[in-house]
Design a protein that fits this description.
alpha/beta
Amino acid sequence: MLVDTFGRTATDLRVSLTDRCNLRCSYCMPPEGLDWLPKPELLTDDEVVRLVGLGVRELGITEVRYTGGEPLLRRGLAGIVRSTAELAPRPQISLTTNGIGLARTAAPLADAGLDRVNVSLDTLDPATFRRLANRDRLPDVLSGLAAAREAGLEPVKINAVLMRGINDHEAVPLLRFCLEHGYRLRFIEQMPLDAQHGWTRENMIGADEILDRLSAGFDLAPDEAHARGSAPAETFLVDGGPETVGVIGSVTRPFCGACDRVRLTADGQIRNCLFATEESNLRDALRGGATDPEIADRWRKSVWAKRAGHGIDDPSFLQPARPMSAIGG
């Protein structure tokens, strides 16, 4: 098992398949993009499958989420998902995506074994979408959401980040849209993971403010009937339920004490925390001929060294050198 010194066990593996993305969201990267990882440094499809299989068979991983960058840009995605679904025991398989390209890939991915999707959608206004993402692709995202629901990739979850002065007035419309279409909405506090290092706490819209804005249009109450466990989102019943909305207060309401996640980057580095400043290189070990037990031991040691929390409130906090697109969500 992947256990740390604080008694937490990692069972949820987030696997980044690429650092590339076809959007340029302002809270993630500059409009001109970034210097992408060279292809030889990326794990091959077979290497991804080998490491995921090792995690599932030997290390207690029960959920695998493929991320990016934008994972739909990975040509071998369907094959990777299919191989993951063939593992025993079979893990739950999910995908975090911006939704562009999902209209044509949702059905094939469902056939390959994908269970569900999380789609990023911060606004319903085309002009605001262009301002946030530096691309005019809102119709593609909406089409992708509909295709995911039709393909049975449910629950279809939507992740939204509110940006002060840009889309912070859309909390109520976003929730209303999701309720009307059967999507599950989760608001996420903006985190210090942008490539520009421009994040400030003063500009961040925190969980309390998100709930205040939602309360202008809905009656919210904690969903006490369902235990949160290690889930990052606090869930609230909307107008008495059964529909809910989630708020992920990564900064102001950290849930580090119950964290069960570990991350594998597109270039084969294990990160025991989203905000970790150290990594463990599994790619070079794998390519150097290391056996599965040797790789598993390196993986265990990385998780064992996990810190108690992300430390954003600590004066010594340092933002990770990698931006979100190069870490994976």
